[in-house]
Amino acid sequence: MSNIRLYIESPILHLVEIPLNKPNLNYLLNVMRVKDEETIKAFNSFSGEWICKVKIKNKNLATLLPTEQISTSQNKANVILAFSLLKRQNNHLVIQKATELNVKEIYPIITDRTIVKNTNLNKLSLVAKEAAEQCGRLDIPIIHNILNLDILLKEVNMKNFVVCNKNQHSINILDLNKKIDYTQDTLVLIGPEGGFSTNDISLLKNTNATFVNLGNYTLRAETAIITSIFSIQNLYNYQ
């Protein structure tokens, strides 16, 4: 059996053929060179993961035939990420790693010091899909529309709200254990490379945010995102 995993949006049912859309058809036949009757894995969050036979009708038509369900559940996702938009390839890296680390939802945001203020959300969704196929998770994180920081704070009200910003009141992220309600999800916010502005900090101080630092060094935004997600996810994993 091939190690290829393919995210399928439609329900996956035993022995019910699934027509492949053009992107998935092209990926299997032209990129991965899959042959007729080869087996791959297809998955989504509501159907689980299935072994499927590839049925090639012609170069423009192929289906998947689910033959065996091999997984029905995955680790619960508890972390929601909000991050200030970065340069294009860096945004792709963030989405890829956030998906691999089982982030539930992602909010690209604009702060006072955000330099790049737009991005291709469809491309980010594709990056998330490919990362999910590679890493073994059964779902794809929800990627929301771009929001300004003040709108995010009005629309997303979380009991657990963590802001990565080193200041005199911040605690080390590893000391969050006693401050998190583990029955609730946690929103973690990462600012731009230049840090939050005075206005941003003023907005954040009017929320229930807990300010944390990631140690003694100044990290690039991508590194801070990966480190914070991993740290908070581990707190949930060991409860």
UniProtKB/TrEMBL annotation:
Domain Ribosomal RNA small subunit methyltransferase E PUA-like: 20-64
Organism: Candidatus Aquarickettsia rohweri
One Gene Ontology term from the biological process aspect of the record: rRNA base methylation
UniProt-listed Gene3D superfamilies: 3.40.1280.10, Hypothetical PUA domain-like, domain 1
Name of the protein in question: Ribosomal RNA small subunit methyltransferase E
Catalytic activity: uridine(1498) in 16S rRNA + S-adenosyl-L-methionine = N(3)-methyluridine(1498) in 16S rRNA + S-adenosyl-L-homocysteine + H(+)
Function: Specifically methylates the N3 position of the uracil ring of uridine 1498 (m3U1498) in 16S rRNA. Acts on the fully assembled 30S ribosomal subunit.
UniProt domain Ribosomal RNA small subunit methyltransferase E methyltransferase: residue ranges: 75-230
One Gene Ontology cellular component: cytoplasm
Family recorded in the similarity comment: Belongs to the RNA methyltransferase RsmE family.
InterPro entries in the cross-refs: Alpha/beta_knot_MTases, PUA-like_sf, RsmE, RsmE_MTase_dom, RsmE_PUA-like, tRNA_m1G_MTases_N
Keyword Cell membrane: no
